[in-house]
Amino acid sequence: MRDIAVLLGGISAEREVSLATGAQVVAALAEAGFAPRAIDVTADLGALVAALTQPRPDVVFNALHGRFGEDGCVQGVLDWLGLPYTHSGVRASALAMDKVAAKTLFSAAGLPVARHREVTAPELEADDPLPRPYVVKPVNEGSSVGVAILREGDNRRAEIARGWGHGRIIAEEFIPGRELTVAVMGDRALTVTEIGTHLAFYDYEAKYADGGSRHTLPAAVHPAVARQAMEVALAAHRTLGCRGVSRADFRYDDTAGEPGRLVLLEVNTQPGMTRTSLLPEQAAHCGIAFPALCRWLVEEAAYGT
């Protein structure tokens, strides 16, 4: 029975999400025949290193989300310790978490991205960086933390800029239409999910509150768009150098009819891993039960970039 250290919690805005992910991963790994132990990651790096060396696990399951856990930082610690771990390595994690860097690579690879630019808070306070409607979001956060849509007549721009507390800012063209996502497992895109919500957009509440969103899989979209989404998700996974699993998020503008315009928003290298999260839902749709998915991630664990 292999000893698996499951990293959960963390110090980002997504701590509660990670705690939920980690708890279900621990249960699934035990069901799959492993000996998992949860390590609640805090700002005490020395405590983390001690927990990973006394005793030393066979594999680390990274169930962290957001800064430190998803951006290459904890991956660097695990590389330094010489421990194999699940999900992407330092380089892919850091690139995917930096929305500006990732979009630059996606554009160079010919993948469809929205018009965007990085701005400072004073620049945002002074003027619109793009024609409205547009989206402002942190460059280095996930789970829609800090995201706002500015439409015609909305006078919140200066207020948002003055109160900004999420680091670097990216402004991005708003794409109307539908929210799609595709999970990638190794060299395979699983399926296309459409995410619906009764809220203004797919924000933090929509993602994690009870009844905040509904998932339809496979998504009821034009077959050519479904194929394109799966092809782009796999290409984005490879462009960033991801390993294990990832999830590509899209906007699909079908407001003028189908097939419409598909736009890649970002790639998540640490997708949510509760049994009802998007990745496990897609895996289950493809006949891969949650314990089997967790086992596969452990078996694919590696270290180094």
Mean pLDDT: 92
Instruction: Report the CATH topology name of the largest domain.
Output: D-amino Acid Aminotransferase, Chain A, domain 1
Separation, N- and C-terminal Cα atoms: 27 Å
Tell me the helix content: 25-40%
What topology, given as strand order, has the largest sheet? 10-9-8-11-12
Low-confidence stretches are: 202-209
Number of domains: 3
Radius of gyration: 19 Å
Estimated share of beta-strand residues: 15-25%
Helix/sheet category: alpha+beta
- CATH architectural label of the largest domain: 2-Layer Sandwich
The backbone outline, from C-alpha atoms, is globular
Main sheet: strands, sense, barrel:
5 strands, antiparallel
Number of strands: 12
Q: Give the class-level CATH name of the largest domain.
A: Alpha Beta
**SS field, number of helical segments:** 11
What does this structure look like?
- This protein is an alpha+beta fold and 305 residues long.
- The chain has 3 domains: 3-87 and 295-299, 3-Layer(aba) Sandwich (Rossmann fold); 96-113 and 176-269, D-amino Acid Aminotransferase, Chain A, domain 1 (2-Layer Sandwich), CATH 3.30.470; 116-173, Dna Ligase, domain 1.
- It has 11 helices and 12 strands.
- It has a 5-stranded antiparallel sheet. Strands 4-7-5-6 form a 4-stranded antiparallel sheet.
- Helix 1 (15-31) crosses helix 11 (290-299).
- Residues 202-209 have low confidence and may be disordered.
